[in-house]
TrEMBL record:
This is Erythronate-4-phosphate dehydrogenase. Pathway: Cofactor biosynthesis; pyridoxine 5'-phosphate biosynthesis; pyridoxine 5'-phosphate from D-erythrose 4-phosphate: step 2/5. Catalyzes the oxidation of erythronate-4-phosphate to 3-hydroxy-2-oxo-4-phosphonooxybutanoate. The active site is at 208, 237, 254 (proton donor). NAD(+) binds at residues 146, 175, 232, 257.
Length: 371
């Protein structure tokens, strides 16, 4: 099988290189002339897969190692009988742990307890749902908005977007980027929403940059809007709106999903679908791809300060903010930062021993490994 894969996708050689003709390419620079004589294409979010790329190719199978699929023209693939597979949920844990790192950083800087805040979650799929579970397990109240799910959920935490905007202290967005349908998300956070947001609230975007109107956000901040803003995704990536980066609280280079575990989960999902589609029976044993535990920690007292210290052992979000502010000034800096990103580990890579039952249960629900 002739396979073409983005060179930044880890473990492609280990899984596809032994029994196939494997070529690799620079994600942003793939064009129709590279794709001739290709049966299988494996991409990241930065490669647009549509008529322009595939019209003169023999590609039969497209895999994207991403949860988001806005870079894929699914209608075109379906009309042309091209099998397509994504990696839904593969990086949900990583994004949730990124959001918690941001929340604990904010709580530490602004001297508040997370448990005293209300978190509004917009988009309650793989990421939003897991975030809701973990926040509730930590005793944080949440409000939920997802128009496609609210009809089947009668729980009192499901509200309208307007209620979340007026009643949440923190709004975190986990929707796909959509331009059509009953509830398109393009510029969902627009001038009106930003103006309606009470002061001292917090906006977090790890979904897609275009879900926020970045120019409207910059204008509001420039005009003195007093809100906290945390962005991992940007309109016009990789050329983000530089003045916006320098006036928000945390800005990172679209790395919320970049844990080594999520990278392994996503490529395994594509590999398994590839083997199934092409009836490949002698599959590679993927279980030994996952890395081992990295740490054993004994903690006597479990409070927010200790949890914050525990989280910072794994990941300090502010370091990524500093990196982006320096790299973003250089041409190609955004992509370079992502290319050389040291994939962080997930909380489950730490064994925590508190010696007490109740906190062990909470830590387990929170995502750490416990005895
Ligand atoms: N920054 C990063 O590294 C990452 C970003 N993402 C982005 O996050 C998005 C969400 O990821 P998942 O939770 O895995 O996707 P998912 O498909 O499991 O969940 C998305 C949820 O959003 C809801 N939704 C759709 N339109 C909506 C609207 N107008 N208002 C409110 N809710 C709406 C859907 O009903 C669904 O429940 C992805 O589509 C991707 O764009 C995902 C992983 C990593
Ligand atoms: O899975 C998604 O959706 C994401 O946003 C990924 O974090 C995108 O990572 P790349 O595919 O751009 O490396």
């Amino acid at each position: 099988m002739r396979i073409l894969a983005d060179k930044e996708i880890p473990y492609v050689n280990e899984l596809f290189g032994l029994t196939n003709q494997l070529r690799q390419y620079e994600g942003r620079f793939l064009s129709d002339k590279h794709i001739k004589n290709t049966d299988v294409l494996i991409v990241r979010s930065i490669t647009k897969v549509d008529y322009e790329l595939l019209h003169d190719s023999s590609v039969k199978f497209v895999g994207t190692v991403t949860s988001g699929t806005d870079h894929i023209d699914q209608d075109y693939l379906e009309k042309n009988n091209v099998k397509y597979i994504s990696a839904p949920g593969s990086n949900a844990i990583a994004v949730v742990e990124y959001v918690f790192s941001a929340l604990f950083w904010l709580a530490h800087r602004d001297h508040f307890f997370l448990r005293d805040k209300i978190v509004g979650i917009i988009g309650v799929g793989h990421i939003g749902n897991l975030l809701n579970q973990r926040l509730n397990s930590f005793g944080v109240q949440t409000l939920l908005y997802d128009p496609y799910l609210s009809k089947i959920n009668t729980d009192k935490s499901w509200k309208s977007l307007e209620i979340l905007v007026s009643e949440s202290d923190i709004l975190t967005f986990h929707t796909p980027l959509t331009y059509t349908g009953s509830y398109p998300t393009w510029h969902m956070v627009n001038k009106d929403i930003i103006e309606a947001l009470p002061s001292n609230k917090t906006l977090i975007n790890t979904s897609r940059g275009e879900v926020f109107d970045n120019s409207a956000l910059l204008k509001a901040l420039d005009h003195g809007k007093k809100i906290n803003v945390i962005l991992d995704v940007w309109e016009f990536e990789p050329k983000l709106l530089l003045p916006l980066l320098f006036c928000i609280d945390i800005g990172t280079a679209h790395i919320a999903g970049y844990s080594i575990e999520s990278k392994i989960r996503s490529i395994i999902m594509i590999y398994n679908a590839f083997c199934q589609y092409f009836n490949i029976s002698d599959k590679i044993n993927v279980s030994n791809l996952f890395p081992s535990f990295i740490n054993y920690i004994r903690i006597k007292k479990m409070d927010e300060a200790n949890i914050n210290s525990l989280i910072k052992i794994i990941y300090n979000i502010y370091n990524d903010h500093i990196c982006l502010k320096s790299y973003a000034l250089n041409s190609g800096g955004f992509d370079k930062l992502r290319k050389y990103y040291f994939f962080r580990r997930e909380w489950s890579s730490i064994f925590v021993d508190t010696g007490k039952d109740y906190t062990t249960e909470m830590l387990k629900n929170f995502g750490f490994s416990v005895f």
